[in-house]
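Weekly structure sync, notes
Attendees: PL (lead), two postdocs, one rotation student
Agenda item 3: pending single-chain targets
PL asked that the sequence for the first pending target be pasted directly into the notes so everyone works from the same version. It is reproduced below exactly as submitted, 566 residues in total.
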Amino acid sequence: MIKRSLQFLLAIFFLIPVAIDAQDTTSIDDEMAEALEYYIQGINDFENQDYELALDKLTAAHLKLSDHAGVNYALSDVYLEIDDYTNAAYYGQIAAELEPENKWYHLHLARVYTESGRNEQAINSLNKILEYHPNDIDVLYRLAENYTEIGQLEKSNDMLDNILDLRGSAFEIHLSKFQNYNALNQYENALTELEKMRELNPGNLGTLQTISQFYLELGKEEEAKEVLMEARDRNPNDTNTLILLAEIYIENNNWEELGNTFVMMVQNPMINPPQKMELVRFLMVKYQNEPEQEILEEQTRKVIEALSEEEPDYAPAQLVSADYYLQNNQMEQALVNLERATEINPNQAEAWAQRIQVLFSLGRYEEVVDLSDQANENAPDNAFIQFFTGASYMFEGEYEQAETWLENATMAPSRRNFRSAIYGTLGDVKQELDKWEETVDAYERALRLDPENTTAMNNYAYYLSIREENLEKALEMATEAVESNPGNSSFLDTLGWVYFKMEDYDQARNYIQQSIETGEASAEVFEHMGDVFEALGDLQKAREWWQKALDEDSERTYLNEKLEQI
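Predicted structure, written out during the meeting:
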């Protein structure tokens, strides 16, 4: 609520005459003086936001001068402030009726109606002003707003046209007309208003961008492109304009133009790195959605390379480049960007974790081990770094070091399924260290965290079978692992070996044969098949499979003894 000044309200009081009889002059003067005193006190209370006292004083003034427009107006103002719209309207109507030519009384009454949701009454009050002040621009604008509020958009535009006739073109008036035409789905008219706005403020990028979108909705693609080119010329660094242009290129499968535009933006030193990242991510999403578009892949690669070269000291740019290369299985190039990212920002935990993981996936375990201390120092308590380091030590045969890193990884924050993988790998290491009780505990934890961790199931089952312990449980886990992944050579071999330990040699031969038929069987599987045939009494076949195992892995020298015995 806009407060009226005391001088303003006093002026209203004295501007409105009170009819008096000559013979009652003394009496009337006394009443006027008393009423004025109440009025001034009420206005002061109103200014001090003491609305109860203001109402008391102004009501007392009203008892003396109920036909005084200024007093009624003041009472209405107080009631409006306390959201008593009924009384605000009542006293506001009296003031307006007493002084029908007073613009401010009708404006106030219109406001009361508007705030109480009675827009049609507000419109009537505003139209009443126009009878006396037909060219009042403020009133015309309020009328336009009220017509818009009740959905009479064409009448709103009539009021706005009157304003334009009176004051000439104005950006905000054309904007209001545009919004009305847009709501009416009169797109040609809306576009006309946008063009007028464009003439009034040719440098307004928002207007140009909106115009371009309307052209597109009207099927006028070339006009849309021309407007966006103008916007780009006015500000080559505005990413919204460039993205809108990119949408046109994409719609027309103009991938080369799209890529060239983005390369130009990435190479523009006036565009800051976060804006470049926004553009590159936009392009990458498009590429991910349409991977079959070879030229789009080529243009995406060009933009990524440009970003990496132009922003060599901006870690997020190196990370997004690495992400692109990882998606395209270009591990070596991804490593270059990840290494650069960790150099720029050594505390970048994500970069360290990805770098360690990529090296691990490439089987470069020594490099993982060499980086581990530095990575762990800059990104402490990172489960990924600790897990892949521990797994690398395991593959290098350094089981005690592997145990330390994996146990630390179990205490670092991570999701349940990943913690399950950590415990499963820890179980493998504990087995190698001949800590069977701790092995069991690790596997059990892995399966509690993720009951579908088939790798943990398989390994747990295999080691139970080797120890010839709890073979029923081993069979249950091995069977579930195979059912989840029936083409896994290792899982099939484990199930066959469990059956072997249970002396069900036909089932053992069946599953181990399936393992071999995958084409991924190891020397250990060949050896198992030899053991099965030995149990079945076919020593010739046993000898053939043991020989295959030895040929596959010459370090299995103990097989020579078996071969010599046959």
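Discussion points:
- The CA atoms of residues 454 and 481 lie 5 Å apart.
- The domain at 1-134 is CATH 1.25.40.10 (Serine Threonine Protein Phosphatase 5, Tetratricopeptide repeat).
Action: rotation student to compare against the earlier draft before next sync.
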